[in-house]
Amino acid sequence: MVIMKRLAFYLCLLFAVSCTSGYESVYEQELIRIDKALERADEYVHMKQQKISTIENMLNSRGVTPLQQYHIYRQLFLEYQPFQFDKAKETLEYQLVIAKQIANDSLLHCTMLDMAMLHTTAGFYLEADEIFAQIDTASLTLDQKVCWYDARQKFLHDYKEYVSTSSIEVPDASQITRYQDRILEITSGDLPLNRHIRILRIIESRDFEKAYKENLEFIASLDKTSRDYAVQTYWQGYICDNLNRTDELIHWWTESALCDIQGAIKDNASLCSIAIKLTDPQDTDRAFKYISISLDDALFYNAKLRKVQIASTLPWILKTYTDSKDIQNRYRTRYLILTTCIALLLLVFCVVAVRLYVKGRKNAEEIESKNLQLAEYYNSVIDAEENLKQTNLDLIEANAAKEEYLGLFLSMCSGYLDKLKKNLTRDQFDAELKNFYKTFDTSFLSLYPTFVEEFNMLLKEDCRIRLKDGELLSTELRIFALIKLGITQSSHIASLLRYSVNTIYNYRAQVKNAALENRENFEETVRKIGSKR
Question: Considering the entire predicted model, what is its pTM?
Answer without folding.
Answer: 0.57
